Amino acid sequence: MTETATSKEPIKASEIDPKFKYELSKMHGGEKILRCFQCGTCTSDCPVARYSDTYRPRTLIRMAQLGLKERVLNSDTLWLCAACFTCTDRCPQDVEVASVIRVLRNLAAERGCVPQVFKDQTSSILESGYAYKIPELRMKKRETQGLPPLPKGNPENVRKALKGVKFLEATEKKGEQHGQ
Ligand code: SF4
Ligand code: SF4
């Protein structure tokens, strides 16, 4: 079962990992998570939350503080953040919310919990240099309309860059929730 950040299911004591917030606070980007006092400014200013019924950065931060590690790392909503840094700019406690979310995503990715859509985009980038594989038919249509060919991607360079950040290994792992 996929948990979401806004799951209304009662929390069981066995789910709580009391060390999780301290582990996060030792990671680069997660240092200030303990400062959050749940004012809700991040959620109220978040452009994604405005259009989503489930995405709430404040909730993700609180769940992480509470030690709900599995729920947070398996949450689909974790991947909705657009990394616009509005929350980071507005947080009165200087929590650097966007960075905390990046840390959570990295932890989720390490266990292979990456949504299939990102895995597919990765495959496409590695194959063609483009996040979206452009159909051959469309390329031919460009030619018939006298449009110049699209610039060639450089998948080899992309592969080298991604290898440096262990991204490939992470997205190639099969996650419990996202690797189906
Ligand atoms: S704005 Fe900062 S202090 Fe307020 S809920 Fe978000 S992270 Fe917590
Ligand atoms: S960085 Fe993510 S959580 Fe923060 S405001 Fe932007 S979309 Fe929302």
Q: Any idea what the shape is?
A: elongated
Which parts are unreliable, with pLDDT below 50 for 5 consecutive residues or more? 175-180
Main beta-sheet annotation: none
User: What does the average pLDDT come to?
Assistant: 88
Q: How much of the residues is beta strand, in percent? A: under 5%
Bound molecules: iron/sulfur cluster
User: In percent, how helical is the residue content?
Assistant: 40-55%
Secondary-structure element string:
HHHHHHHHHHH
Helix segment count? 11
Cα distance, first to last residue?
Answer: 12 Å
Task: Please give the number of β-strands.
Answer: 0
Supply the helix-strand structural class: mainly alpha
Task: Set out the fold topology.
Blueprint: H1 20-25, H2 41-45, H3 47-51, H4 57-66, H5 69-73, H6 86-90, H7 97-110, H8 116-128, H9 136-144, H10 155-164, H11 167-172
Bound molecules: iron/sulfur cluster (2 copies).
The site of one iron/sulfur cluster has 14 residues, from helix 2 and helix 4.
